[in-house]
């Protein structure tokens, strides 16, 4: 059934907008009139054909978290599922999410379960989201699991925002400094070099090195750009393969400082995901399978495959995690304590909180260190250029004197 975006005026004279599903524009208009809404515009929304998970779908995690929390509130207040979905689709500020929710409501009204309806939009709802909703439907605790999902999404969105925000300034400095340096070497230095050539005087070693670098960049800039483009394209294509993903993920974990940061982010995501799944009633083996899909790192994902095999054969969770060598002792010991005390979910949440705090601390430390280091490096390079330009001028002045 088509979905239409509309702008209208309600009975109180307030402007409203949203989405509505109907067989035709005429049916949509009549539907809205029965609701006491008077149209000002109506356009059919194009259906999203994508069915594969894409974290860059355009719908922000924070927006999905807010909608999930509102969904939980409506369900806990006793509002029927279809009515809750209708309310959410109309009041969400993201038109794309509103369209998706309207399509989900339509599938639910046709008799589909909520989880199955959500699974038709995996570009918006991850496997974790869908499976937790399915567990909530089966146990009759949909409002509770939606609340847990909202907490989980908000935590992930907050952590991602902090990491990105902390890295904005260093990246800005890097690109601005690199741009200024490139302009100086390809435009300014060649013109200064011509003046030195006309003077016919011997040049200092620093100046000769600077001129050689500038000549190389100017003569081979197209080849350099072509090489970089080919290299990036080849790396991108290789990263699409299983071996490529494993290679780059393993390489990322070995990068000094940033490898440790990546590892902490992955462990935090895994423990929080596993804790959320277990607390929602998902069996451990199923939770490990879903956790593997959302790890974001093939090295850890392969480790979880082996862990799942051991757990299926009767082993505890902590022991194979410890034997893998990629999970720190803190994680395995706390999980072991959780298994012994029967408080696995609580222990996993504590581990996730610990690693979230460590990530924030490490990002703040890196940011405070990166800024002065980048300033020193850029300053040293610019100082080299300045001295290389000024030394011949000083020599020429002393010769004239």
The CATH topology of the largest domain, please? Receptor-associated Protein
| CATH H level, superfamily name of the largest domain | Type II secretion system (T2SS), domain F
Average pLDDT across residues?
A: 82
Low-confidence stretches: 47-57
The CATH architecture classification of the largest domain is Up-down Bundle
* Largest sheet: spatial strand order: 2-1-3
Categorize the overall geometry.
extended
Helix-strand sequence: EEHEHHHHHHHHHHHHHH
User: So what's the CATH class of the largest domain?
Assistant: Mainly Alpha
First-to-last CA distance: 89 Å
Domain tally: 3
Tally the beta strands. 3
Rg, alpha carbons: 29 Å
Number of helices: 15
Roughly what percent helix? over 70%
Largest sheet: 3 strands, antiparallel
Account of the protein in words:
The radius of gyration is 29 Å and the shape is extended. A 3-stranded antiparallel β-sheet has the order 2-1-3. The protein has 15 helices and 3 strands. It has helices at about 25-35, 60-75, 80-90, 95-110, 115-120, 125-140, 140-200, 205-240, 240-255, 260-280, 285-295, 300-310, 320-325, 330-340, 345-400; strands at about 5-10, 15-20, 40-45. It folds into 3 domains: about 1-45, Ubiquitin-like (UB roll); about 50-125, Receptor-associated Protein (Up-down Bundle), CATH 1.20.81; about 150-400, Receptor-associated Protein (Up-down Bundle), CATH 1.20.81.30. The longest helix has about 60 residues, at about 140-200. Residues about 45-55 have low confidence and may be disordered. The protein has about 400 residues and is mainly alpha-helical.
């Amino acid at each position: 059934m088509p979905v239409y975006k509309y702008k209208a005026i309600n009975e109180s004279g307030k402007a409203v907008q949203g989405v509505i599903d109907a067989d035709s524009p005429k049916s949509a208009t009549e539907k809205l009139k029965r609701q006491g809404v008077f149209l000002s515009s109506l356009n059919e929304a194009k259906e999203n054909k994508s069915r594969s998970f894409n974290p860059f779908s355009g719908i922000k995690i924070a927006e999905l978290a807010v909608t999930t929390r509102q969904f939980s509130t409506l369900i806990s207040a006793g509002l029927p599922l279809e009515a809750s979905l209708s309310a959410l689709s109309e009041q969400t500020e993201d038109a794309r999410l509103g369209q998706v929710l309207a399509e989900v409501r339509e599938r639910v009204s046709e008799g589909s379960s909520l989880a199955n309806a959500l699974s038709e939009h995996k570009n918006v709802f991850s496997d974790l989201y869908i499976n937790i909703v399915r567990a909530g439907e089966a146990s009759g605790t949909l409002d509770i699991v939606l609340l847990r999902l909202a907490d989980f999404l908000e935590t992930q969105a907050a952590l991602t925002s902090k990491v990105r925000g902390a890295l904005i300034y260093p990246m800005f400095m890097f690109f601005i400094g690199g741009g200024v340096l490139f302009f100086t070497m390809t435009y300014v230095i060649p013109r200064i070099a011509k003046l030195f050539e006309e003077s016919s005087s011997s040049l200092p070693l620093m100046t000769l090195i600077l001129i050689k670098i500038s000549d190389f960049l100017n003569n081979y800039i197209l080849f350099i750009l072509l090489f970089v483009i080919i290299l990036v394209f080849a790396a991108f294509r290789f990263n699409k393969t299983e071996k490529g993903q494993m290679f780059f993920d393993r390489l990322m974990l070995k990068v000094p400082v940033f490898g440790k940061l990546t590892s902490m982010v992955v462990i935090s995501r895994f423990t929080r995901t596993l804790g959320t799944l277990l607390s929602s009633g998902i069996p451990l083996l199923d939770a490990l399978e879903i956790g593997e899909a959302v790890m974001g790192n093939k090295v850890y994902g392969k480790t979880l495959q082996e862990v799942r095999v051991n757990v299926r054969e009767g082993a505890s969770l902590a022991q194979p995690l410890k034997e893998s060598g990629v999970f720190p002792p803190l994680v395995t010991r706390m999980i072991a304590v959780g298994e012994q005390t029967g408080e696995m979910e609580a222990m996993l949440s504590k581990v996730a909180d610990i690693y979230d705090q460590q990530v924030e601390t490490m990002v703040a430390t890196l940011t405070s260190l990166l800024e002065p280091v980048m300033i020193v490096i850029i300053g040293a390079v610019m100082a080299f250029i300045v001295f290389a330009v000024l030394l011949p001028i000083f020599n020429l002045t002393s010769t004239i004197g």
